[in-house]
Amino acid sequence: MASFLILNGPNINMLGRRDPTQYGSKSLEEVNQEISRVAEKIGVEVFFYQSNVEGELVDCIQEHRDKVQGIILNAGALTHYGLSLKDSLIDSRLPVVEVHLSNPSAREPWRRVSVISDIAKGQVAGFGWRSYTSALEVLAAIVAEESN
To answer: Is the separation of the CB atoms in 123 and 99 below 8 Å?
Structure first.
C-alpha cells in the first residue's frame, strides 16, 4: 500500500479560526478527516504532520523519506522563503505536490512567489480543503503509474 506524508507549515494549525474567505471554515483536524476519507477510498495510507517551525518540518521529511512514496505540502508562509525546507524536499527524492487553500496568484504580490514550485510535480491551489484531496488523488495515481 502506498503511503504519503501530508505536511503542513506555519499557521495551518489555525484553520477554522483564520479568515474563512481565504482559508475556509474547517479546522485542520476536519481537513485531515476529509483527506483520510479519500485515502481510505483510494487505498492509500497517510501520515499527518504540522509545525510552525521550519526545522521540525525538515526533521519530519528526513524521518519519513524512506517510509512514504510522496509528500503533499502546504508550506504556509514558508512557501515564499523556506530554503532549508526546499533542500530537504530535494534530498528526499520524493515526488511533491504543493497545496494551497487559497489562490496565491489572486492575492498579494509576495504570495505569488514560491521557492517550492520548481521542484514540485505540480501545484493545487484555490479549492480550499479540496486542494488536499485533489492532490492526494493525483499523486497516488502518478505513484501507481510509475511503479508499474
So the answer is: yes
Residue 105 clears pLDDT 90, i.e. is over it: no
Q: Which of 64, 80, 81, 100 is catalytic?
A: 100
d(CA 44, CA 58): 23
Whole-Å CA distances, 71 to 22, 57, 88, 135, 145: 23, 12, 12, 10, 16
For the question of whether the overall pTM of this predicted structure is more than 0.90, the answer is yes
Strand ranges (DSSP E) for the chain? 3-8, 45-50, 70-74, 96-100, 122-125
Total number of domains in the chain:
1
23 is catalytic: yes
Structural domain boundaries, residue 68: 3-147
What's the mean pLDDT in 30-38? 98
List the CATH number of the domain containing 87.
3.40.50.9100
Round to whole Å and give the CA distance between 31 and 37.
10
